[in-house]
Amino acid sequence: MSHMLNHHDQAGLFQNLVLSVGTVLDLKSLLKQLAAQVNIHLPASQCLILVADEDDPVLRFGALHPAPSDTRTQQMLESLSLGLFNSSSPIIADWIAGNPFTLTAENTADQPELGWLLTMMAVDEVVGQPLMNRDELVGVILLALNEEGGEALESRLAAVTAAGALTIQNARIYSRTVHQAEAHMRELTILRQIDRELNDTIEPHHVFQMTLDWALRFTNAQAASIGLYDQETDELRIITTYGYDTSLEELQYLRAQSSSIAHRVARSGRAEIIPNVADDKDYIRGANQTQSQLSVPIRREDRVISVISVESKKLNGFSDEHLDFVEKLAARAGVAIDNARLFDTTAREREKLSHILNNTADVVIVLGLDERLILINPAAFSALRLYPYENYVGRRFEEIFPNTPLMDAYKRAQNGTDPLVEEVEVASGRIFHMNVTTQENVGRIIVMHDITPFKEMDRLKSELIATVSHDLKQPLAVMNGYIELLLMHRKLDENGLGFLDMVRKSIQSMRQLIDDLLDLAKIESGIQLNMEPVDVKSLVDDCLESLQPNILGKALRVVADIPDDLPFLLADRARFQQILLNLTSNAVKYTQTDGEIQIRAEHRDKMVHIVVKDNGMGISAEDQTHIFERFYRVRRPETDNIEGTGLGLAIVKSLVEAHKGQIGLESRLGEGTQFFLKLPVAVDDPTVVSA
Fold this sequence. Notes:
Elements: H1 2-21, H2 27-41, E1 44-52, E2 58-65, H3 71-78, E3 81-83, H4 90-97, E4 101-104, H5 112-121, E5 125-133, E6 136-145, H6 151-199, H7 204-219, E7 223-230, E8 235-242, H8 248-257, H9 261-268, E9 272-274, E10 292-300, E11 303-312, H10 320-359, E12 363-367, E13 373-376, H11 378-383, H12 397-400, H13 405-415, E14 420-425, E15 431-439, E16 443-450, H14 452-489, H15 494-524, E17 531-534, H16 536-546, H17 548-553, E18 557-561, E19 569-572, H18 573-589, E20 596-604, E21 607-614, H19 621-624, H20 648-658, E22 662-668, E23 672-680, H21 686-690
Parallel strand pairs: 18-20
Antiparallel strand pairs: 1-2, 1-6, 2-3, 4-5, 5-6, 7-8, 7-11, 9-10, 10-11, 12-13, 12-16, 14-15, 15-16, 17-19, 20-21, 21-23, 22-23
Helix pairs in contact: 1-2, 1-6, 2-6, 6-10, 7-10, 14-15, 15-20, 16-18, 18-20
């Protein structure tokens, strides 16, 4: 029963002490209140608390109640330091083990510090009760008791030591947490200031100087440098220094002769702290008093772009805290340095582009997403007869070119989704090849090339071709007639008949060439088209039926995806069939055996979009620029045996443009080609009305 009462008293005392002092989180205040509470709850005339230092293995003065009356005693207590691990004292050894030990004159005779404590408290004996937290000594309570010990007193002592150890440990944890939070807040404040300063400039030299300045301030270093690293050439070039006894050029020369710590860090991508540079074979002395060095790589994405190095006069002059800060600084500097380099590169590229635009003969106009001009080059002023001293930037396109063919072409580009390519005649009578493309996040880019001389040459060439072609047809007809007579009489042997057949085929090829030339000349001179609503699906079917022998001969797979509700085209039926037949026959000719051809059509933006696609040989980028020119044929070994005049696509382009449509292509060698057409729908088509 007595044991149960003691246990109950012990728990009650522990609770009272924790409630009394547990809310005090400042360690000094806690120790004073704890010493006072111990005096209240225990029969003791004095209570001295010693606390284990968190950084060094010693016991230091914590609190004494009642407080000493003279200043000298207080000063001696403040300077008290009892070593723990190097002490030979059995008393301290017992405290470390968690065992209480009573101080007397006899057992402290050879231990001056403990003997002085006994003398200072002016008693014959002092009970030393260790304060333990998970087998770790956090302090000792020394009590000058007024009565003999017993079971009840031991119980109360146990409660006091448990409460004391708990509250001291809690106060320490709180103190560490507050200190860490304050240090973290100071660091965040510094880093925010660094971010502001680095964001305020994109001039590379200023970025380097600010980075160096912050590294020196935080680490208390005497010297520092930053080098730019090129991974491809493995070159580290020093660009700015501070505090060195040698010049930047001399330091660069010395480091270029052999490897250095900074160069080693650049190659490995890992930061290094060198506690004593005398022990590092790669150290190159730039500051005479340097004894330790910290080097940190500055990264951008996955590559090292620079290295920052700081040097100290002290041995082991850099801590993990310094390393952590410089690494955070390097992360911010990496972005700023990269931005500064990009800005410098962009400025040079912008200047280069400005020179190109100012000196090109082509018209270049750029419109923003709001359809207002953001760039117009000098060539545009003379070509489009604009006032040279007027500022057109910021004005809308229709304000500058109202009711002109240029405006009409631009409207067509606005209504479509594909790039616009067509010829436009301007007020001066000159003809330009106009290309309008849409650039994401920029707007529309208009490039116009003056083709007036080419058009004139083309006209003269067409007249010559038309005249010569007519004159050539008559002799070819005579030659073909005599060949037919020879075949009728059959007076030739087998070899002769073979030769005659070859001549006949050559005459047919010549006649086809002449017919194509005449057709092209007729179209370009202004052909009269018989415009009517045309059903695309039926014409595609007719086209594929006429090419069926060729398709079967090469075992090609043909997919025609033409919606049943596709609107009718407004077109000349015969000429549109000629366009389809030409494109599809080209796909058949230039697609290898077992290949695939697709013909698709859809209605979009008041236009019918038609695509003829194959997975054949493809066309190189160089050939694509000439593919619609007369007589141009792709010259590669695999195309040598394919017959053709080189006029088919030129005729197709002329016919498409005569229909107020557009044609273009996309192709890659070895992957195939797709030609895309845009032609207007018939206005009176019922599908269009419903749409």
